[in-house]
Amino acid sequence: MKVLSIIVFLVTFSASAAVPAQSGQAEINRVQGLIEAGELDEALAAADVYIADNPKDPRMRFLKGLILTTRTEWQEAINVFRTLSNDFPELPAPLNNLAVVYAEIGKYDSALEALKEALQINPDYASAHENLGDIYVTLAALSYRQASSQEDNDQTARAKLKVLGQLVPDLADVSTSVQATSQSKPQTASIASQPAADPIQSKEVETFVQAWASAWSSQDVDKYLDFYSDKFAPAEGKSLPQWRSERRYKVAYPAYIRVEIQDLETRMLTASQAKTAFTQRYESNTFRDTALKELLLERQGNQWKIVQELVRDEQ
Question: Which domains does the chain have, with CATH numbers?
Answer without folding.
Answer: 25-191 (1.25.40.10), 201-314 (3.10.450.50)
